[in-house]
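Researcher: I'd like a structural prediction for the single chain below. Treat it as a standalone chain; there are no partners to consider.
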Amino acid sequence: MSRPVSRVLTLLELLQSGGVRTVAELSGRLGVGERTVRRYVDHLVDLDVPVESVRGRYGGYRLAPGHRMPPLMLTDDEALAVLLGLVAGRRTGITAAAGTAGETAAAKVRRVLPERLRRRLDAVLDSLTFTTAPAESAAPEAAVLLPVADAVRHHRPLAIRYTGGRGGSGGSGGGGGGGERTVYPYGLVAHAGRWYVTGRDLSVGADRTFRLDRIHGARVLPGTFEPPPGPGPAERVLTALATAPYRHEVTVRVRGAAEEIRARLPGSVAVVAADDGGEDGGEGGDGAGAWCRVEIRAERLDWVPGVLASLDRPFVVERPDELRGLVADLAGRLMDAARTTPPLRD
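Model: Treating it as a single chain, here is the predicted structure.
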């Protein structure tokens, strides 16, 4: 490739990275004079690449928004990042695309790569293994995700058609069944392979969290609203998941600072709060004498004793009574295992 052509393509790559590039900056990056930069820009315009000239003190050149984009150019590192991002997104369930969209997108990227780079990237993808199984994905439809994101960004009301989950619950946090809703959306959150939108449900006058894969229609409405102060969208979603209606409501007091307990219990599993009324509450600046209250919602209790034991902290079960028996059973099995000696080998 001749040097002028190579520099024109490099200029295109610089403009594709976004923002306004001054003539002086482009001149330094390309190693040519400013007059030559302008000539290269004219070459791109002749090829129907929508390059705009921006006047003023901080003026320069940029690609015009909203026009047909020029051919995509990726460096080796960028191509690897794109393909690995598609693979990782598919494995974790975070890719917001149903069906085979991730595979077809990766195939299109590979198809336009030079043979040398394609072989190197294939070697990475073919030799890559994961330590965890693929996450169960519940990808939202693009026709839902895009208007929801637009409403979140511009603080606009959102009309949705929702199908509730367990027992007709409309999303986490007790959405009150399916049907048409009007929502003030606070934020989008991706968690454990699912997408959620949290906000004010005007039909019930309360904050709710909705799964995007259960939204079958979304439409941005006129008007605006002001998001309330307080927890961010991620914290709201995790709290909604932890307090969703389940068969058992567990309350346990644990000795230790709330921050330490939160570090061991995911926010989607338990709600942890300082308990000023606990024994020795407030003693010890390091939290050694403090107690906190842990609330867990669960369909089954069999896994809770193991979680409490893993905290390695004194705890008191407040409810339900059934949990005390399960904790005692686990303690007995651990004592039996500790007393058992391994059989002698020949």
